[in-house]
Amino acid sequence: MKFSKTHLETVSREFLMAVGASSSEAETVARSLVQADMRGIHTHGVNFLPKIAMRIADGVMTIPTEPKVISDRDAICHIDGNNGFGQIAAVKGMQCAIEHASQFGVGMTFIRNTNHIGLLAQYSTVAAENGMIGFAMCNSAPSVAPWGGMEPFFGTNPFSVAAPSGEEHPVVLDMSTTVVARGKIRQALKNGNQIPEDWAFGSDGRPTSDPKEAMKGTLVPIGGAKGYGMAFFIDLICGLLPGSNFSREVLTFHKSEGPTGVGAMMCAIDIQRLMPLNTFQILVKSHVQSIRDSKKAEGNMRIYLPGEIEAYAEQASQADGIDIDEKTVAEIDSILEEKGVELRLKQQIPR
Asked: Do 170 and 126 sit in the same domain of this protein?
């Protein structure tokens, strides 16, 4: 089903306020979830609304979100997310990193005790839009075994970096350290679909195409031992260093087992400490054009930059509507009815 951005954001905002969120945090979180769906990253979209409602109702998530600055010295800020919305802590964290980068050339924010922060590209891109190079990373619940093992130990531990390109969109990389995010396994299980065998190992340590068995096992890290190494250091930087949960301590957002204890890191580098921003953008634009003009592999008409396909998907969603699966629509509308909210997602007929 397709819905307009305005309708989807309105319904999401009303949903979040109905379960106890303040109007300002509901606005931020709704915008984050809807943008993920617009970019085709449905694992981080409005399908999270029922999970948020569950966690708040079960008392394992604290709202309104009140991030606390533990320390703010020189180029480094340390924030406690106080078990609230991860998006609120992450937005504050990147704002702080940008402010520090303006003063010191580089700014870093370490966040502890938060929850799922959504699409990391949303934060790294903010730095790029402010003429900086932005980094965002976080840890997550165990789903990856150390290379050579078969016990879940690290999360998918995503990473994002973005830079101004001199074009309409910043160049942005947003990736997990696994072949796919675990949300795609959950999505396949929810829809009754099989998965490619190179996505996950079953509980016996062997490749599997069964999403149910994959949920009992572990995900395949990108590049084998290299992906495991990246997951290790992201967990160390985002979890262990800021004093948040790490490794097997991080709990999943998808079950009410307790506070997730997710940790994150935001970083901004002021380009103008190295060269004028305009010079950087001219160089990047020329570099990008060289990449696009390079020889194409057979069957390929175009070489895309990191994040470019998602940017085009967002533009298409703005014009044509945002795809949301019917099961998610039904779940959201059921909870809205339960909370006594008159508004329904399905009130807007698909475009």
From this structure: yes
- What is the rounded CA–CA span in Å between residue 135 and residue 150? 30
Give the model's pLDDT for residue 349.
Answer: 53
Q: What are the tens digits of pLDDT across the range 139-179?
A: 999 999 999 999 999 999 999 999 999 888 899 999 999 99
- Cα dihedral value 251, 173, 16, 254, nearest 10: -20
| This prediction's pTM | 0.93
Contact by Cβ (8 Å): 265, 135: yes
What pLDDT does residue 167 have?
Answer: 82
Phi-psi region of 302 (alpha: psi -120 to 50; beta: other; left: phi over 0): beta
Does the pLDDT at position 229 exceed 80? yes
In a domain, 185, yes or no: no
Mean of pLDDT values over 176-186: 88
3-state secondary structure the chain: CEECHHHHHHHHHHHHHHCCCCHHHHHHHHHHHHHHHHCCCHHHCCCHHHHHHHHHHCCCCCCCCCCEEEEEECCEEEEECCCCCHHHHHHHHHHHHHHHHHHHCEEEEEEEEECCCCCCHHHHHHHHHCCEEEEEEECCCCCECCCCCCCCCECCCCEEEEECCCCCCCEEEEECCECCCHHHHHHHHHHCCCCCCCCEECCCCCEECCHHHHHHCEECECCCHHHHHHHHHHHHHHHHCCCCCCHHHCCCCCCCCCCCCEEEEEEEEEHHHCCCHHHHHHHHHHHHHHHHHCCCCCCCCCCCCCCHHHHHHHHHHHHHCEECCHHHHHHHHHHHHHCCCCCCHHHCCCC
Q: Are 197 and 207 in contact (CB under 8 A)?
A: yes
Q: Domain range spanning residue 239? A: 68-178+221-273
**51 and 72 assigned to the same domain:** no
